Amino acid sequence: xxxxxxxxxxxxxxxxxxxxxxxxxxxxxxxxxxxxxxxxxxxxxxxxxxxxxxxxxxxxxxxxxxxxxxxxxxxxxxxxxxxxxxxxxxxxxxxxxxxxxxxxxxxxxxxxxxxxxxxxxxxxxxxxxxxxxxxxxxxxxxxxxxxxxxxxxxxxxxxxxxxxxxxxxxxxxxxxxxxxxxxxxxxxxxxxxxxxxxxxxxxxxxxxxxxxxxxxxxxxxxxxxxxxxxxxxxxxxxxxxxxxxxxxxxxxxxxxxxxxxxxxx
Length: 265
Hints:
Structural class: alpha/beta
Organism: Polynucleobacter brandtiae
Order of helices and strands: EHEHEHEEHEEHHHHEHHEEH
CATH architecture: Alpha-Beta Complex
Distance between the termini: 38 Å
Domain Glycosyltransferase 2-like: 4-144
Domain Galactosyltransferase C-terminal: 173-221
Pfam families: Glyco_transf_7C, Glycos_transf_2
GO molecular function: transferase activity
């Protein structure tokens, strides 16, 4: 099974650099990287071209013009170029553990998709890590308890203990909780069946919930990736959330339509 890791980015080379470095250090190297760029400036393109020269992985850069926050569209454009059967969606400010790809591979199953999990890093710890000469997971892990006790990170045990697959991971119905588009995976054919992410949802917020709802509405079972796929989410400024309410309304409309339809059957 070939995996395509789709990394969304926008004008944040320092974080993207460490994310790509962490992908270089995977124990499972059978994957490609597609950088889904929502209109970054030329400096990002130059950085990616330079990084590709020494990378062990196949990397492609898919770019669209900066016309505002259009994450859904750039993810769809990147997915269209994916050669993998299985898509793992990742944000360009989420550093991954060395077993990230292998853990997603172990959870991949026909008829299912995975919503992963994250550990949040404080602004101070983010600045500290990005000041390192390069990403070093062993160095990070050796200080994890200190980071946790000093509130530099909001999780400890899920980064130390990995749990296997099982029915306990399955969601029986749609819930908004714990949907993180920064760490999510599905079969490419399943994403194509529902026409990918809803490009009508622009601006920050809830395009991931909409994607999850429509996958479940199409008969797929959501599987939790917690205690298995945690990513390290670097701190960033809060995005413009002016479209969030409208995006949430669109999702609720689809849920209501499904509920109404089911009640008539």
